Amino acid sequence: MKIQIPEKVNYIIDKLTQNGYEAYVVGGCVRDMVLGRVPEDWDITTSATPGEVKRIFHRTVDTGIVHGTVTVLLEQDHFEVTTYRLDGIYEDNRHPKEVSFTSNLAEDLKRRDFTINAMAYNAKEGFVDLFGGMEDIEKGFIRCVGVAEERFEEDALRILRAVRFSAQLNFKIEANTLEAIKKKKELLRNISAERIRVELTKLLVSDHPDRLRLLYETGITGIVLPEFDKAMITEQKNIHHIYTVGEHTIRSVCEVAGKSEEKLFTPKERTILRWTMLLHDIEKPNTISIGKDGQNHFYGHQEKGAITAKTILKRLKFDNETLNAVVHLIRWHDYRFTLTPTGMRRATSKIGKEYMDLLFEVNRADTSAKNPQLNDEKFQTLEEAKRIYSDIINQHHCVTLKELDINGKELIAAGFKPGKKLGELLDTLLNMVIEDPSLNRKDILLDIAKKI
To answer: Is residue 432 predicted with pLDDT exceeding 90?
Structure first.
């Protein structure tokens, strides 16, 4: 196994050991090295106290000194160095009431969540793996350090983290750990919405978001996303669908935005697309009607779904940019494109240029999770819509008031009165230009305005 630690990280470890202390990289970065991944962060643990770390290194920041963490600054880089510690009693299923420092690495490692995150390493001594983390990586297991129920009682967020890690690493959750999750899931009610949002998002943007099924099977969704449970048992009974609403949802989430390594979308767009697919049919269970054809229909689920999605995203404390984008895409996710230049210009004007590529991807993923025997025509329609849209963009057709070759100030300067009717006039001119792009010239638009 080839282990490469950044030069500055080795420098910190060497400096600490030269001063008579133990020091290792620890946790997720060790796990990622074993898996052949490039760690995002390098956490260092040491027997030196925060004060001793500060004496050894000239530039430091007291990041979390009460809990033993000092950030060491080396040029433009920063690294967290944390003293071996023992956690006191956990009073809120999330944070220890107090921590105490120890000089024993084993005591520090045994307080950690999962075996794969409880390994340490330095170049001199190699791996310190006291709880079988290496073996669990080889087997592809997520297993708690020690007694799983105790680990979850200490920090209930670990319940959600277990499923998230299984999605990110494509690992199975070990049997005792899985049983403890089922028993202790109610403790998640004590966890903040922000922390739940972060874990759900990491799971969703992973390459195995199908672990949503595991969230449902263990009862976790009943606590963190109860609206989803009803979808899992709602039959669609429609020729266009062969899955329950929930199964269709999971499959569409897996399909949208591709694999992370493909980088088809920015991380922000990937988050927006995955949450859109998770919530796009959230109101189908509440909008079922049976048509004359004997099939289920879900009239109005788009608009109602957008409203419910907004409620959910607010509950999870999402930022406004993500919230607004997801809600907008859900509202329009079932839009039927008219395959003419005018039809696509109208669609773009209604939906917004900034959302069109995302909506096309939503449409593709949604279709991919329907009845495959009826999908060919739907995919052909989508490709034609994308082709026409591309032509519109390349030809710089006007689809918004901003792109109109005349504005309100210019109309006022030409003698028109400001007010509501002026806005209506501009809307009329835009509609005419959407019908016929050649009209988008200032002289032509001014002449039309005068005639109107």
So the answer is: yes
Q: Give me 60's structure tokens.
A: 């430091």
- Global confidence as pTM: 0.93
Number of CB atoms found within 10 A of residue 283's CB: 24
β-sheet bridge partners, residue 44: 25, 81
Question: Does residue 2 carry a pLDDT above 70?
Answer: no
Q: Measured in whole angstroms, how far is the alpha carbon of residue 431 from the centre of its chain? A: 37
3-state DSSP call for residue 122?
strand
> DSSP code of 415?
T
Q: How far apart are the C-alpha atoms of 389 and 342, rounded to whole Å?
A: 10
Which single residue is written with the structure tokens 């638009």? Answer: 445
pLDDT in tens, 262-320: 999 999 999 999 999 999 999 999 999 998 888 988 999 999 999 999 999 999 999 99
pLDDT greater at residue 38 or residue 354? 354
**Residues 259 and 309: beta-carbon distance below 8 Å:** no
Dihedral (CA of 167, 173, 179, 180) sign:
negative
Q: State the residue for tokens 């230009």.
A: 433
Backbone angles phi, psi at 176, to 5 degrees: -65, -35
Q: Are 43 and 83 in contact (CB under 8 A)?
A: no
Question: In angstroms, rounded to a whole number, what is the distance separating the alpha carbons of residues 170 and 200?
Answer: 16
Q: For the beta carbon of residue 410, count every other beta carbon within 10 angstroms.
A: 14
CATH number of 225-381: 1.10.3210
| Closest-CA residue to 19 (of 81, 106, 68) | 81
Domain boundary assignment for the chain: 1-146, 225-381, 401-451
DSSP 170: T
Q: What is the mean pLDDT of residues 63-91?
A: 87
Sheet strands (E) in 44-133: 44-46, 60-64, 69-74, 77-83, 85-87, 99-101, 119-122, 126-129
Strands 44-46 and 77-83: parallel
Q: How far apart are CA 114 and CA 136, in angstroms?
A: 10
> If phi over 0 gives left and psi between -120 and 50 gives alpha, with beta otherwise, what is residue 132?
left
The CA distance from 193 to 191, in Å, is 7
Give residue 92's pLDDT band: very low, low, confident or very high (50, 70, 90). low
The Cα–Cα gap between 117 and 162 comes to 11
CATH of domain 1-146: 3.30.460.10
Cα dihedral: 414, 420, 421, 424 (round 10): 100
Backbone angles phi, psi at 295, to 5 degrees: -100, 155
Distances (CA, A) of 322 to 60, 68, 201, 452: 35, 35, 12, 41
